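Input sequence (309 aa), recorded before submission:
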Amino acid sequence: MSEHTHDHHHHADAGPRLVGALLLTLGFAAIEAVSGFWSGSLALLGDAGHMVTDSASLGLAAFAVWLARRPPSPRHSYGLGRVETLAALLNVVFMVLVVVAICVAAINRFLAPAAINGEAVTLVAVVGLAINIGVAWLLMHGEQTMNTRGALLHVLGDLLGSVAALVAGAVIVFTGWTPIDPLLSLLICVLVLGSSLRLLREVLRALLEGVPEHLSLAQIGQALAAVPGVRSVHDLHIWTLSSNRIALSAHLLVDNLAQWPEILAAARHELLHQGIAHVTLQPEPAAHPVRWSPRDGGAASPVAGEPAP
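Predicted structure, token format:
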């Protein structure tokens, strides 16, 4: 139970951080758009657009945290923790679209260079960089769920964008070489794409009920089979409910059903040690093994433990 209250404390922390980050980015996007129009800089307008997509991703993340905190209902017996994973998925897809749009704009820039007010770009980029560092710091020092990482991805992309605008502005002021602007934005796209795809892999694993990266099905099966009185383990499943809640279910073939209370306590203790608190275990007596119908795909073949003699 302590595990669960701990969990809620964390989420209470993620929400306000995301909302604070949202207000900061939205406010600055407005300033940036105005100065972009004034200086005739596409770089700044692009960056303002980027800030707006950031705000959308932060808003989505904050909404997901709020939804995920709602208690389980008769319709959603697990609660809505998965919403955070879905929000992270949307954020990654959204980020990839932003990256594609920036790449297209950069290529057009190579084909048709434009005049840019370097001083204005540099000045606004410095302010943007400061804001983004603040937002990134807020998110990095909160709890790292998939959801906050999805939002952080946008902010880091933007932070790199501000660095690029700053360097581009400086290069344009000193040398007047404008292609530096699209060149740098392409480089940043590549970096952001890398982290987007890493997060995407993790999100998809959770949505496909995959075993979490840091756990081994075989090793946990063996640990359960090693509990005194357990002969073998089959139908073992481990999956992610939300960023920090893992569920497990398994069937245990036991020597004697009378020992079940002790076996159950020992098994739960072992799993809690592995960080798995949401556990469902089904005992089956070794003397009368439960025979499965063949179309069940031979589910009774043990994952771990000795076959019955």
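Checked by second reader. The chain has two domains: 2-207, 217-305.
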